[in-house]
Amino acid sequence: MNDAGPIPDFLDRTKAPKLVGTYTILNTYKNCPHQMSRRYITKDLGAFVETPEMKFGNDVHSAFELRISTRKPLPVSMAQWEEFAKPFDPHEVLVEQKLGITREGKPTGFWDQDCWFRGKSDAVIIKGNTAYVADFKTGGSKYEDPFELEVGAVLLQAKYPRVSTVKGNYIWLRENRSGAMHQLSDTNATFAKMKHLMDEIERDRARGWFEKRKSGLCGYCSVADCEHYFVARPK
User: Fold this and answer.
1) Is residue 230 part of a domain?
2) Which of 89-108 are b and which e, b meaning 16 or more Cβ less than 10 Å from the residue's Cβ?
3) pTM exceeding 0.85
4) How many independent structural domains does the chain possess?
5) What pLDDT, in 10s, does the model give residues 161-172?
6) Is 205 part of any domain?
7) Pair 34, 211: CB distance under 8 Å
């Protein structure tokens, strides 16, 4: 607990801008609350620098967006992944959907003032009351976790309330395979989990203290002034 004095303005939720939740914020918080606060609340880690991996991921998502929505072929450098785009051709597909909800779980605009949580869906097919969600990944699948897909299902169902059944999977492009199909229909349970984590963040913010959680991920962290920080050895 930090008893050093008044809460700084950037942590005081009555003075600082509202924090709109995202899957990335929740995932970072689960790994290390302190890192999350530095990246998304105090924002004191210096100017954002796009890594080559980030640029590649963004380029791939843009290429798949065009490929699925307009049938424009993937660039030559990505042509080996056509097999993951072709199955979408016979269907009407919603691509790069920007979705937002209020704290009550009601649909709202991605940038609206009452937006409490937001996210994007790579590719969605809706048939009647059933939806399929695909998430293209350019990283590795070692720590596959359906929570990101589950969060996407909550946002999707808020906008399309007729949808009662949601399933989805990750498509691991570097590994040239589709991941396991996950059932995502229990959106009430997922929404409760989202609210619990967001409440924990606001609780920590109100008291001006975020736990520094030591783990093997500390070697890849950008918070270099943390006592747990170390530089990971190249593989």
Assistant:
1) no
2) eeeebbbebebbbeeebebb
3) yes
4) 1
5) 999 999 999 999
6) no
7) yes
